[in-house]
Amino acid sequence: MPTSLNDNEIAALIAEPKPLPADYRSRLQTKPKRGHRERELDLDGARGHKFRLILRQSAFSPLDFSVILAWVPPQSTAAFRLCRFNGKSHEHTNTIERQTFYDFHIHRATERYQQSGLREDSFAEPTQRYQDFAGALRCLIQDCAFQLPPNDQSELF
To answer: Deepest of 108, 111, 127, 131, by most Cβ within 10 A of its Cβ?
Structure first.
């Protein structure tokens, strides 16, 4: 796995169409796992890249959740987190900018943070686009070029 991706590579992976399978709703139903609910779904992008959708939600706090899109490089099982839609359950600090906030927030992988030796998706921005887990999942699906199965026009969740 490359130690880093540049911003253009990150943007191209996020923009790559990601068709959802016909049974995506049932495959995204979270299951209990030690204090939280979790589910992962591996997907093939339209250009042949492998992606993983990771869903986690606390069993105790509805505001404690993460909805993650990761890229899985060839010949690897390690996931590179492209973006992460988090709940309002903790304070977040952007280390480089020295900016701290407590709100719903969206993490994005950036070249700058990787070059600083930080986790690829350490940078985040507060958002008011969602207020719950289902809303965060809808936003990620809209923002990251997911495609609904043919004849599926219903509300995502």
So the answer is: 108
* Structural domain includes residue 75: yes
Give the range of the structural domain holding residue 37, as residue numbers without chain letter.
7-86+130-147
pLDDT digits (tens, 9 = 90+) for 112-143: 999 999 999 999 999 999 999 999 999 999 99
C-alpha 62 chain-centroid distance: 17
DSSP assignment of 48-74 equals S-EEEEEEEEESS-TT-EEEEEEEE-T
- What is the tens place of the pLDDT at every residue in 41-95? 999 999 999 999 999 999 999 999 999 999 999 888 889 999 999 999 999 999 9
CB 156 within 8 A of CB 137: yes
Examine residue 46 and state whether it is found in any structural domain, yes or no.
yes
Q: How many domains does the chain have?
A: 1
List all residues 6 or more positions away from 156 whose beta carbon is below 8 Å from its beta carbon: 134, 137, 138, 141, 148
Q: Does residue 115 lie in a domain region?
A: no
